[in-house]
């Protein structure tokens, strides 16, 4: 059985000064290296996140994979690199830059290290062109944010992009990036602990309640990070509202819970009871091992939650640990 971690991250060791590259104010992400394999992601003059060489070193990633018994790691950029608020040409330039950097990291062992590309999602034509280029270049799918400005995933342009991904066979990972109500959550990483799960539920429900899934082909392979956020726990509330309020079901022809066969989620929920609920909600064929490696909010020993789960059968564990991801990505 292959063990596949389908949700991990990378940050290049270095990249060009984007402010100089584009002649813009110095509010771009950059790396402040601190020695000893440690660094700080900066955004302008603000510290964003401390990281270490496991973000950019293929050999360091492989060492941890060997430690945890992971056969394949599928990495995607940390979302601070998306550039969705920038002019589309600049965001496209960044996407190409970071997509190529991901392939360089994977070169340490292309059989075990795989990558998802990013796209300038604020421009659908450019996004379609870049995902097509990146897939030909060796990426196994694409990671997108859960919204662009005021546009949720049911936006007509984003639906067009998802349709294109289905047409070219590009699996899609949806990852939250710019959490709601940050001004009310300035401390304790509450934006990550409260806003991020809510953002993911919003993105799932935007596809279900708008009827977008009715317009998208069933060939679309779509996954939501972090166990679907708050979606699994609150799905009963959504079904109840759909049943009793016509304004809820206005654009959604079927019970919301009937759409769980249209997407996947990862296993990054960090608790056996939560994983039990997730598998009960989604089914054992729709959950894939995802660790959020190598960040502190990720699983520190990849796969430990699934391996040690008391209530999952051996066949279910095999699916979650690798079988489902192999099918999802065509590996």
UniProtKB/TrEMBL annotation:
Task: Output the Gene Ontology cellular-component terms.
Answer: cytosol
Where does the Amidohydrolase-related domain start and stop, copy by copy?
A: 4-331
Keywords noted in UniProt:
Decarboxylase, Lyase, Metal-binding, Plasmid, Zinc
One GO term (biological process): secondary metabolic process
Under which EC number(s) is this enzyme classified? 4.1.1.45
Catalytic EC class: lyase
Sample GO molecular function, one term? hydrolase activity
Which pathway does the record list?
Answer: Secondary metabolite metabolism; quinolate metabolism
| Pfam families registered for this protein in UniProt | Amidohydro_2 (PF04909)
The UniProt family comment states: Belongs to the metallo-dependent hydrolases superfamily. ACMSD family.
The record describes its quaternary structure and partners as:
Monomer.
Annotated PANTHER family: 2-AMINO-3-CARBOXYLMUCONATE-6-SEMIALDEHYDE DECARBOXYLASE, 2-AMINO-3-CARBOXYMUCONATE-6-SEMIALDEHYDE DECARBOXYLASE
The name this protein carries in UniProt is 2-amino-3-carboxymuconate-6-semialdehyde decarboxylase
């Amino acid at each position: 059985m292959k063990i596949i971690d389908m949700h991990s991250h990378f940050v290049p060791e270095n990249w060009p000064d984007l402010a100089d590259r584009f002649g813009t104010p110095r509010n771009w992400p950059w790396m402040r290296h601190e020695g000893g394999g440690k660094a700080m992601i900066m955004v302008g003059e603000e510290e964003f996140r401390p990281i270490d060489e496991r973000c950019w070193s293929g050999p360091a990633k492989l060492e941890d994979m060997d430690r945890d018994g992971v056969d394949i790691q599928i990495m995607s950029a940390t979302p601070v690199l998306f550039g969705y608020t920038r002019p589309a040409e600049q965001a496209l330039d960044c996407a190409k830059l970071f997509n190529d950097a991901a392939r360089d990291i994977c070169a340490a062992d292309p059989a075990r290290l795989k990558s998802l590309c990013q796209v300038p999602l604020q421009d659908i034509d450019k996004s379609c062109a870049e995902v097509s280029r990146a897939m030909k270049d060796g990426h196994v799918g694409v990671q997108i944010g859960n919204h662009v400005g005021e546009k949720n995933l049911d936006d007509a342009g984003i639906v067009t992009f998802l349709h294109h991904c289905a047409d070219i066979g590009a699996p899609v990972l949806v990852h939250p990036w710019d959490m709601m109500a940050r001004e009310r959550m300035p401390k304790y990483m509450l934006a990550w602990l409260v806003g991020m799960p809510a953002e993911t539920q919003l993105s799932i429900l935007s596809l279900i309640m708008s009827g977008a899934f009715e317009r998208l082909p069933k060939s679309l392979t779509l996954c939501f990070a972090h166990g679907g956020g708050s979606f699994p726990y609150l799905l009963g509330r959504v079904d109840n509202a759909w049943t009793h309020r016509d304004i809820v079901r206005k654009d959604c022809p079927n019970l919301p819970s009937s759409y769980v066969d249209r997407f996947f989620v990862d296993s990054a929920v960090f608790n056996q009871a939560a994983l039990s609920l997730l598998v009960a909600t989604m089914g054992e064929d729709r959950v894939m091992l995802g660790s959020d490696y190598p960040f502190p909010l990720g699983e520190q020993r990849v796969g430990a939650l699934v391996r040690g789960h008391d209530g999952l059968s051996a066949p279910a564990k095999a699916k979650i640990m690798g079988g489902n991801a192999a099918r999802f990505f065509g590996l």
